[in-house]
Every structure is written in C-alpha cells, then in structure tokens.
Design brief:
This protein has 335 residues and is α/β, with parallel strands linked by helices. The protein is 32% helix and 26% strand. Helix 3 crosses helix 4. It is globular, with a radius of gyration of 23 Å. Pfam families: ABC_tran (PF00005).
Amino acid sequence: MRAVQAPREDEVVRVRGLTKTYPAVKGRRGTPGTPEVRATDGVELGVRRGEVFGLLGPNGAGKSTLVRQLTGLMRPDAGSVEILGHDIVRHPERAARLLAYLGQESSALDELTVSLAAETTGVLRGLDVRRARAERDAVLEELGLAPIAGRALKKLSGGQRRLACFAAALVGERPLLVLDEPTTGMDPVARRAVWAAVDRRRAERGTTVLLVTHNVIEAETVLDRVAVIDRGRVIACDSPAGLKEQVSGEVRVELVWRERAPLEVPEVAALHERAAESGRRWTLRLAPEEARAAVATVTGGAAFAALDDFTLATPSLEDVYLALGGAARQGLVKA
C-alpha cells in the first residue's frame, strides 16, 4: 500500500492521488484492447513556497495533462489538488486568482499587440487600467520587449511571441507561476531574461514556480526540485543533485560514427547491444572501468577510422530518467 506523504506547512501546491484516464487508441499511447490509458496515475506532489519545482519527462509522459488539472482547466477522475489551501477540484474557478499560467498555446492573444496583451491580462486579473499599464511598462522593459510593444503577436517570430506571452503572464502578480515549456523557440538572450525575471520574483516576492520541461539542461540549472514523470506516474522526486546521486557510479559515453558503426568489429558489436541509438549517435551508461575499456576499443584499431567523435560525461538528469526505467528512451532534450 502506498504511503501517504505528510503535508508540510510551507506547501503552496498539494496533490494527492490525482488520476485522469482516457479511452485507449490503437497506434497511440496504451496497448490496443486495453480499456483506458492513465494520463495521470495516482500522482502525489507537494510544491513548497518560494521554490522552482519542475516536472520533467518526454513528450507524452503526462506533464501537460497534470498541469491542466492543477490549473483547474481539466477535472480529474479522482484525487485532490489544493493551492494555498483552496480545493481546485471542487472550485476550479479559484485557480485564476491564485496562479498565472503560461500554457504551450496562447493563441487567444495573437490579434493583440505586445503592449495590449500585457495590459489586458492585468485588467482581467483585477488591476485598474492605470496600474495595469504601469505593470505592463515595467515588465516589457524588464524583458527587453519595449521596442516591439506596438507589434501584433501574430507577426512576431516564435521566440518573440513566446517571450511576449511570458510577459503577459507576469502582469497582475500571482503567488504561483505555472510555466509549460516557457522558453520554447527562444534564443539564449531571451532565455536568460526569462530566468532572471523568475529569480527576481522569487527573491523579492516569494513567488513559487512550477515549471514543465523536457529540457534536461534547463532543469539542471534552474530547478530546486524536480519530479520525473513517466506514463503519468511520478517515478522520482528530489533535487537535481539528489537524483543524479542515484547514478553517480556510472559514466555516460557518447559515440558518433562518421557513416555507420563498424559492427564487424566484435568489441563494437558488443557495445551496440548496450547502446541507445539516435541516428549516428550511440549513448551508453557504463561503470568507470567499462567506460575506459569502451574508449580504448573505439579509439584504437579498426573502429577508430569509423569514429567521428566521442565524449565522456558525469551523469545527467536524462541518465537518471533512463536508469529509473523511463519509457521514451530518446524523449528528453539535451541542449
């Protein structure tokens, strides 16, 4: 029987036994003939005040479905969601007063200019026009969007549009900020602006952030804690460093072949049996002594002529995911 986690006084979000099912569809998630697919399967989480908490997993793992239930946009089949003590399952309309949500799609703002999108969001959140405009101006300046404030979102590049939607989410401050893949399509400058804005609000206002991502680089650098999601379940939850300790005795070896791997070399064929393939790239998780032997194999003899590049690295969150039995073995972004 699953142990129930004791509630903490500093939890802003508390999720218990959250379950959502859909009919199984042949050719998609689930096995043909099964009655249902569990998009969320008994999820239990606690997000603490002032932390940046992440949901990490490949596309299709159930992250966005979980977030839609947390934000009151989707009703679960079972379980509970509390935000700052409010029951969001029974009173989903309260979510809008407690959190700001940046979803993957924000097409409702497309016809508006950057300026008007931010101002309108503030007014809808209860600000008077003067206050909404003041916050709008401050946020656009903070994110470097003032030069394009008069342009319609639909005429912006993907990264600019995403940044403008993030700006709108910040106007009309909420204690909880829920961001679903917030930096998709952004260049490095825009990404830095997003995380600087998040850090500033957490430091100055105690804002709590729930981040959905499949980008392991982002997760390792910005998150305090992360829940790894696989097939609707939380398969691990800890700090990035704590999770990586679970595979600290391993080394990640990546091999890139020029055209094809020389499988006629017995040692390379043996490595192939343990490798996760992505085109010309092989990824292996090995004990240190095995990693040394693998490097010796591919950098000497007949295999070397076929090798384009190789790297050795300490474990990442992707390695943790694979070690924990994640289903979509190539589903996480590395850079």
